[in-house]
Structures are given as structure tokens and as C-alpha cells.
């Protein structure tokens, strides 16, 4: 039974080069991937790179005094997190503070400005029919009929296409008076009181030309006054246009056309909401010169609502054959409709890539349950974090130097194995941190640096366990090669148990904490896994190879494995016990 075991052991000892080649190939591949991706340094968090800290204060909606609660605040934090992560911003922090504030920390870097714009945007989207529209401001004048249109795709999956983000248009008669515009609003109010996709109230009149009720007439008159006074060229009026209007009521709104001119609108009740959108994506439109577009797929109920509104609008004359896509009170597009549509829609026009991605991202992750205002915006410099990082790196360098000095003084030649293993572990850690930045948004912050420094001790501990097991075998009188192979199984068990405990602690810490502490836990867990990889694929195979070298095998005094210095027992040999003299007389 001993012979086969010896053969297998010899076979395992004869191929340590394969493990070394495997880990060196892995390092070369990771380094190559790092240079190919163009990222040669890890992403830095807000404490090291600087950035912006935003405090958002929740506001109660009209008629909803109890809207600010823990459930809505947690939902808002979740949506903001998904919006920022959807843009690929690394290590953005979104967390509540008190009962009505949310703190958002956005580090400098790719798409950080977009994220700053999006975090507090409510993103309440509605599709509203256009009742009337005209250019706003002193230069307002009747404009031509809209060039935007809606049509179905040949595949049968309908789509809506708008040529401008807010296409310029007028009422059916360019010389429309306030009376005719007021009549349009009054008719819309009457229509909203009849059974439709958005309302089930009974009809208030059955005559061919019914007279509106006094309340409807008063609402129409008030809305007309708002429309007449509205000047969308003034930011203050744009901010308050339609403020407090319910989705079931007509309202006024502002929008900007492709010529960057402001238009004002009277819009009917919302027929389709943003919650009826299943998904949205920003795509480059290769079929025409419009550039970027946003595609939307509706839910089953949303598709039915969209089909109903486009069926109604397709029978009207401009501008009442248009519907406005209203995002947070602003008209982002107002395409015209000439046929019934359903299923999906496309918003096209003078979008650039950033605008299309912003709109798609907000539509994709939904509207915030609350309205927020910016209470404060603070720019965070990297100076303080840089000083702390400098101090942390100095502390890490001192700790590493002390470990190396100890290894050299106590283990002598074996310290070369430990130092080489530490260098391999450092190379793997650096390349992985660099590649994980663009891959999963990992960003290196001060706690993560602390985790990497703690990992030095964990890795060095694994080497010490292995070396001491080898020395124990040599003290028992064995030569180096069998000592390495006999020491490995016992050392392996100890290393795996120790690393498992460290990894378990890191995993629990990552799950139960938020913010920067997760960076520490993630780095600690990553380096613990790398410790296992390095010890199994580098340290042990390298030790097996060195055990064949005369310098180590002969127990040189500087090898760290000198049997005399270790107090080794002499080899056990069976000796013949001298026989007692025989008394011939007694015999």
C-alpha cells in the first residue's frame, strides 16, 4: 500500500511548475486587460477624488400632507441609487438623514454631472393631449404646423415619432382668438367628465352642443388667464407653470422647440402615465438624421391607454392631434398623430446622447414618490482625503517594512518566498481593483485602503503557518523534501479555516453596513480570497521547487531551515541491544 502512495506523491511533487505557470499567466492576462481597457489606476471614491455632496429636502405634495414617511423615503433612496448606478457613477452614496432629508455624495468622474442632475428629479411622466400652443414671450407669433408625426412600423409594432423635442405648432386657425382657445379648454373639461380610459364619471350633458357647467366654465376661464399671463422665457414662471395641477385636470406647461424657442401649452388631462412604461432605452437612430432617440415599451394596460388616446387624436386637426410628453411639468416632446398606435413608442428629435440617456434612465427607473428641493450643494475637495491617504500609505509601508524585517531576521532564506508571494498578491489585488472599477463600479476609498493594509497581515500569517509546519517536520528528523509534503496538509487546513473566518466576517460586514464601510469589507473579502489563491498556486509550488535546491535541502545556516538551529532530533535508527554475558557455571 505504501508504494502507490509514494508514486502519487512523487507525481504531485514533480509538477509544481504548472501551478506557477497558471498564476503567472493569470497575472499577465489581468495586466493586459487593464492596459487594453485604458484604465491603469483604480477608481477613487469621493474622499480621495473629491466630488459633490447634495442635501435634498422632501416636500409635501398638495393634498397629501402625510406623504413624507419612511416607506416613501426608502423608495426614493432606492430609485436614486438605481439612477446613479445606471449611469455608471462609481461609489455614489445615497442615504437618508433625519425624517425628510436625503444626502447624496457624488464623486468626480464619468457621468457625475449627469447624476447630479438626475438624483433629485422627480421624473413624473404623463402623456397629455395638446389643446393649444404658441410661441411664448415678446417674439411670439403664429408658427407653422408641426412637422412631427406618428406612424406604425412595418413589423406591426407601432411606434410614435416626434421630429423635435417640443415641436413648434399653433391652433387649427392661426388667428385663433382667446374665445376659441377658451372653447377648446371648455370642451376638454367636458370630455374629461365623460367615460374614458382615464375617467369613469357619467356624462354631464347629452345635447349636441352642451353648455359647460359653471364650475367647468370657471376652471376654463382660470386656466385661460394662466395661459395668457404665462411667459415661458422667464425661468421663474416656467418653474411655477402648472404647479399643483392634478393629473386628471387640464394644465398649462412650457417646452422648448428645436430652435431653442420657448412655447407655452394648454394641455388636457393625462391619458397615459410613466408607470405604464415597462422599459426605456436610448438608441442612436440610424434611419434618419435626427440622431439619438428614446424607445419605450408599454405595459399591457399602458398599451391599451396609448391606443385609445392616439385613436382620438388622429381624428383631430392640428394642434389638437398632438399629445405632449410631459416630464416633471416640462414638455419634452409634442408629436402629432395620424393613426392609431399601441405597443411601443419612440421619442426622436434634437436629442444628443446625454439628453437621450438622461431621459431613458429616468423613465426606466421610475418616478420618485416625493418632490425634493436642493437644500444645499457642497463641493468636496480631495485635499483632506489625499492627506489621509498619504498618511495611510506611510503607515502601510511602515507595517510592510516591519513584516519584511521580521521575516528576514527569523526565516532568513524563506523570507524570499514570503516576499515573492506578497508581491504576487499585490499585483493581483491592484489589477483586479483597477478592472472592477468600470466593471461593477468599485471605487477605492480610505476604508478600502485600510482593508488592503490589514490583508498584508492575513497573507503573511498564512506563510508563517506553512513555514512553521515545515520546521516542525525538520525538528522530527526529516529531510526538507518530505518535510514540505508532510507539512502541507496540516498547514492547508489551518490556512483554509483562518481565511474562511476572515471572509465570513467580511461578508457579514458588507451585508449589514452601508457606505464607505462596505469598501473596507469588500477589499478585505477580495484579498482573503486572493490569499488562498496565492498560497495554493504560488507559495506551495515555489517551496516544492526550492526544496530540491542544495542551498535549502542541505540546511544552510542562511536558508532558515538549518536542523541544528532548529534543534532537530537525530534520525531514529534501530540498534542491536548488547546481549548479557552468559555465566558458564550457571549454564
SS-derived structural category? alpha+beta
Going across the major beta sheet, what is the strand order?
4-8-7-13-12
Rg (C-alpha, Å): 37 Å
Proportion of β residues? 15-25%
Major sheet? 5 strands, mixed, barrel
In percent, how helical is the residue content? 40-55%
Q: Got a strand count?
A: 15
Q: What's the overall geometry?
A: elongated
| Amino-to-carboxy terminus distance | 47 Å
Rounded average pLDDT? 76
Instruction: Quickly count the helices.
Output: 17
Low-confidence stretches: 1-12, 141-182, 193-210
GO molecular function: protein-transporting ATPase activity
Function: Part of the Sec protein translocase complex. Interacts with the SecYEG preprotein conducting channel. SecDF uses the proton motive force (PMF) to complete protein translocation after the ATP-dependent function of SecA.
Subunit structure: Forms a complex with SecF. Part of the essential Sec protein translocation apparatus which comprises SecA, SecYEG and auxiliary proteins SecDF. Other proteins may also be involved.
Region (Disordered): 136-222, 564-587
Tell me what the structure shows:
Belongs to the SecD/SecF family. SecD subfamily. Residues 136-222, 564-587 are annotated as: Disordered. Part of the Sec protein translocase complex. Interacts with the SecYEG preprotein conducting channel. SecDF uses the proton motive force (PMF) to complete protein translocation after the ATP-dependent function of SecA. GO terms for molecular function: protein-transporting ATPase activity. It comes from Streptomyces sp. R21. There is one protein chain. By secondary structure, the chain is α+β, with helices and mostly antiparallel strands. It contains 17 helices and 15 strands. It has helices spanning 2-13, 16-37, 46-49, 70-86, 112-118, 178-192, 214-229, 235-240, 300-313, 353-365, 383-411, 414-440, 446-475, 480-512, 516-546, 550-553, 563-566; strands at residues 51-59, 93-97, 101-107, 125-135, 149-152, 158-161, 251-256, 262-267, 272-273, 277-285, 291-298, 323-327, 330-333, 344-351, 371-380. The strands form 4 sheets. A 5-stranded mixed β-barrel has the order 4-8-7-13-12. A 4-stranded antiparallel beta sheet has the order 2-3-1-15. β5 and β6 form a beta hairpin. α2 packs antiparallel against α15, α6 crosses α7 and α13 packs parallel to α15 (516-546). The longest helix is centred in the last third of the chain and has 33 residues, at 480-512. The chain is elongated and about 115 Å long. The two termini are 47 Å apart. The model is unreliable at 1-12, 141-182 and 193-210 (pLDDT under 50).
